[in-house]
Design brief:
The complex is a heterotrimer of chains A (102), B (664) and C (226). With 102 residues, chain A is mostly helical. The longest helix of chain A is centred in the last third of the chain and has 30 residues. Chain A contains three helices and no strands. Chain A has a domain of 65 residues: Helix Hairpins. Chain A is elongated and about 55 Å long. In chain A, α1 packs antiparallel against α2 and α2 packs antiparallel against α3. Chain B folds into three domains: 136 residues, no CATH class; 446 residues, no CATH class; 67 residues, no CATH class. Chain B is globular and about 105 Å long. In chain C, α1 packs antiparallel against α2 and α2 runs antiparallel to α3. Chain C is mostly helical and 226 residues long. The chains are: A mainly alpha (102), B mainly alpha (664), C mainly alpha (226). Chains in contact: A-B, A-C, B-C. At the A-C interface, α1, α2 and α3 of A face α1, α2, α3, α4 and α5 of C.
Amino acid sequence: MLALNETWYLVLAAMIFTIGSVGLLTRKNPLVMFMCVELMLNAVNLTFVTFSKALDDIAGQAIVFFVMVVAAAEVVVGLGIIVAIMRRRQGADADDISLMRG
Amino acid sequence: MNLIWLIPCLPLFGFLVLLVAGRKLGDPGAGWWGTGVVAASFLVVVKVFFDLLALPEEERSLTQTLFTWIPSGSFKVSIGFLADPLSILMCLFITGIGALIHLYSIGYMKGDEKFSKFFLYLNLFLASMLLLVLGDNLLLTFLGWEGVGTCSYLLISFWHTDPANASAGKKAFVTNRIGDFGFMLGTFLVWVTVGSINYADIGPAAPMIAAGTATAIGLLFFLGAVGKSAQLPLSVWLPDAMAGPTPVSALIHAATMVTAGVYLITRLNPIMAQAGWANDVIAWTGAITALVAASIAIAQTDIKKVLAYSTVSQLGYMFLAVGTQNYVAGIFHMVTHAFFKALLFLGAGSVIMAMSHEQDMRKFGNLRKYLPVTFATFMIGWLAISGIPPLAGFWSKDEVLAGAFNAGPAGPVLWFIGLLVALMTAFYMTRVVIMTFFGSEKWRLTDTPHEVVESEDLESSDLVTASVAAAAHGDGHDDHHGLSPDHTPQESHWTMTAPLVILAGLSILGGAINLPFGSDFKHLEHWLAPTLAYEHELPPVPVLVLLAFAAIAVASLGIFLAYLVYSKQKIAAEKIERPVLAHAWYIDETYAKVAGGPGEAGFQGLADFDGTVVDGAVNGVGAGVLGIGNRLRPIQSGLVRSYALGISIGGALLLAFIVTRMNL
Amino acid sequence: MKVEMFTFLLTAAICLAGSAGVVLLRNPVHNALSLVATLFGVAVLFIQQGAYFLAAIQVIVYAGAIVILFLFVIMLLGVDKAEGLHSEPILGQRPAAIAAAVAILGLSLTALLSVGSRVTGQASTLAAIDGSEPNVNALAKVLFTDYVFAFEITSVLLTVAVVGAVVLSRKAGLAIDVDEFPEGTSSDLLQAKRDAAAEELEVAEEVATDDETPEGEAETTEEALR
């Protein structure tokens, strides 16, 4: 049996990241898209923690802490925006909102 | 303590104060202030002069770098001043004569409504001129060069309410631009060749410059000098520049600014030593200009016009000297000329003031009775410029001519032309003196020929630009038609006569700085020696004495001829004053016809080319960008998921790049 | 070793299944629940690698707060309807997305697997994880020393986010009601409140008698929303 080393974690993180990106690109519901972004952030967090262990450096974990704070702030504001949009247009999806069209 | 920076900064400070508080200082406060700062600057120059004198001869070069002006890679320009024998000599007479002319202007400009503005411009002019002379690199000199050009423009068109004055200023400005382009190209070429535009670097590097390049540099800078110093074919602006107030003519258009070209060539003498036939071009241009201008001066009736053409002619002498690499004589003549020509101009100004701003010599006469001080000092100026020993003009002119005689195979021809010019100079100056100070009081005659000639002039010059009309018009000062038959001229205020007396003294003694009686008397030559790369050989003594006697004889002949024509009236004046001379060889008219005819057509063609091809290219680029933008606009769809896709693809490409760069 | 491997494989399976659920399930509520599964899995992986504090934060903040917030918004907006996954309005979006994803995954796997088991880079000397020190202490030490400035900035960021969320989720076009903050003494205010309450009672009685008013009101609010 193969030994459990950092590569396993990193490969898992890459897979989660890819799945998240596919979801972000294909789903139309803005809420689900947000969840996919959270998936991608978590994948990155996982790599940070993995490298932190591999390189014996606590700074990797400190960065994860900050990523989490930023993610929380982002979710709060993002959901606020979604609420505001949904109030105006019931059942809108991401493709309906294209006011910034050139 | 190094005071060099104070020399240009004092007039600049004076300018700034006048700019802010000029009207408050008023008349004559602004004048005294302007005179004061220039006098202070003169004192500083004297101090620096003695500092230099205390140093051993080889070390007489003080530099002071204030700060770096343009740091741009290997191209670095500093605001720095170079005080060496040449620049300090220039500063001495610029600030000295400048202070005297400021003093004179207090009287001359009295009651003018733009009194303080006049001194504002004069101070700015002196600051620029000193910057030109003291700058330790070509760009700084160019800054001063443009500064004096601007002040010259502003002062020529000082009474700009008369359109003739305004267009005379414009003419000077445009003509000078042609020369400036030569200066700029020359600077570029020096930078490319030497890799520096500092005089300190140019001197040692000059012997390495290839002869062809040195010739090109010499010719380009000479083009700049031709424009600024009014040599043929760019001489046309200086006579019109007499539209400005007379002190301006004395300071800018006789003593200082117009000699900047001579200074420039002298400053670059290490390069000129390599420049080959460029020197011949300079010498011949100078000689021919001197001859043509002197011939024109014979037939002018406006007293300032005579002096203007005389200035052009004397500048020709200086270029003759510089072109024969006889720099000491060129600078010597520059200094003495500054003395006696400033004196003559200021004297003429005094006469013009006394005659209610009338400048036509045919209305003068017998003024020695009314203006004794002006008469006495003008006499000295006349003898000095005519080349009568022992006055200043004789020594310097003689040295120029002797140097020309010894300059290669063409030397005797150049010398002969110079001698001819000396004859004419003595002739026309005697003519001025006789018409102005002797004879009958012609303004008392009611019917003068002046009006007839003026209308003729205007008729014949229909095609000619307004500036030529200004030439016929004379000063153009608004209130100059107050000359009535019962007018009694009065001697000027002491602020005007004091400078005259001082300048007269300098015109008598100025020759003493470089007497040819042996090495001990040649103070100027020793003084300038460290800055000159070239030793000029004068002819052997017997020849020198012979040449000197020839010059004296010719000057006396000129005076005698003029006496016969204008005092005894043995020869009709009309035989000598040909129309072709009165019209300045029709140079202005030719320029006007060429510029107005084929020139205008050519420029119209260029304008059409600009309108279709150049503008077309620019507009085409604009239209192309607009078209591409319209094509690309759909990419900006406003759809968030498309943007996200773009980011993903970009990320994938980055990853691909990293993977290919990995050591797999 | 075997236990560790087993734990990893199990959590990895849960994580992948959860993330697949987020992408593939049609109902947003189900998506959110799948996300919780993944987040828990990642928390377990954090514990496995000794990041105990982060694991706790992961559960509390992510699974606890963020996903609940998601669910709250889903319920609030009533968008818990199934989304049609088969229609794709943007031309070529789906194949391009798959291609980009495959490229990203393939390239990262190439990069990871070609290096083998070693992680490139220098081991830390400054902030080394000392086995004797508890994880929370070690993280706290760097957060309040080296990263104290960033830490303070995050507090500002969170405040800004809260204010932003409040502003964004206010009803559109509704300015702050100045009447909520009238001038006067507290006894005056109390009296005014009593009067207002009495008036409201009267209005309510009137409304009860009139049938058409609520419909009209609903219409106007709808218009205002558009």
